[in-house]
Design brief:
Blueprint (H helix, E strand, L loop, with lengths): L2 E5 L3 H13 L3 E5 L2 H8 L6 E5 L7 H12 L6 E5 L3 H8 L5 E4 L4 H14 L8 E4 L2 E4 L4 E4 L2 E3 L3 H12 L7 H9 L8 H17 L8 E4 L3 E4 L6
Parallel strand pairs: 1-2, 1-3, 3-4, 4-5
Antiparallel strand pairs: 6-7, 7-8, 8-9, 10-11
Helix pairs in contact: 2-3, 5-7, 6-7, 6-8
Length: 232
């Protein structure tokens, strides 16, 4: 199971984030003291780090840089929690962190950003190809095969499908999927995801018309998930 370390001097934030990560099938470890976290992770690195920017005695940036040194790494799969004032923004630009989220934040956005960072580090998926039932996803080739037949997808469609299928049955909101497909720099509306889903379903059905395609499940008012089946 993938482990996330949360480092924040506010216990309510630690407890809340820890519980929310656990509902998404992650293991968590929490620290309200960056010094203790540094000592622990120097010997016990994990797959992802969520780090508060402002903490007493040691800032989030200092913790991150010192941990990189101790682990002899140029960078780590880390996500910062920050208000991003001018000083913080300058500090962030001078590090090799993956990303940051602004306070206050939505957990689903935080989760999506962190998963993208971990994927880039190759820690979430060591095997770049995987199967979910009769679906084969070849990430290096940006290709999917359904019952052995290739389906041609756009990059955005592939990113969306890849996110749904690598964590089956997990419900992703439209905001999460928008961030995955487009990133935060492009302004889109959540109904664009509905259009993507509609096109994906159409392409799957066209590839093999004799097989009923109902793997992408709509959770009304919440979002979408990939629901695998053992047969069919």
């Amino acid at each position: 199971m993938t482990t996330i370390s949360i480092i924040d001097d506010h216990n309510p934030i630690l407890n809340s984030l820890s519980l929310q990560f656990q509902t998404q099938n992650y293991s968590t470890i929490t620290f309200n003291c960056p010094e203790k976290a540094l000592t622990y992770h120097a010997k016990n690195p994990v797959e992802g780090y969520v780090i508060d920017m402002k903490m007493p005695k040691m800032s989030g940036i200092d913790f991150y840089e010192q941990l990189c040194l101790k682990l002899k790494k140029e960078s780590l799969p880390a996500l910062f929690l920050t208000a991003v004032d001018n000083l913080e923004e300058k500090a962030l630009k001078e590090t090799t962190i993956g990303d940051y989220v602004l306070k206050p934040f939505k957990f689903n956005i935080l989760l999506t950003r962190l998963e993208k960072i971990m994927a880039n580090f190759g820690l979430e998926e060591k095997n770049r190809s995987y199967k979910v039932g009769n679906l084969e996803v070849l990430q290096d080739q940006i290709m999917v095969k359904w019952f052995g037949k290739e389906i041609e997808l756009t990059k955005s469609e592939f990113n969306l499908l890849n996110q749904l299928t690598k964590r089956p049955r997990v419900v992703y909101t439209r905001d999460q999927l928008l961030d995955i497909c487009y990133g935060e720099d492009i302004v889109m509306v959540d109904r664009n995801i509905d259009s993507h889903i509609k096109r994906l379903r159409k392409k799957f059905r066209k590839t093999n018309p004799k097989i009923k395609f109902d793997r992408i499940k709509t959770h009304y008012g919440n979002g979408y998930s990939w629901t695998p089946k053992f047969q069919g």
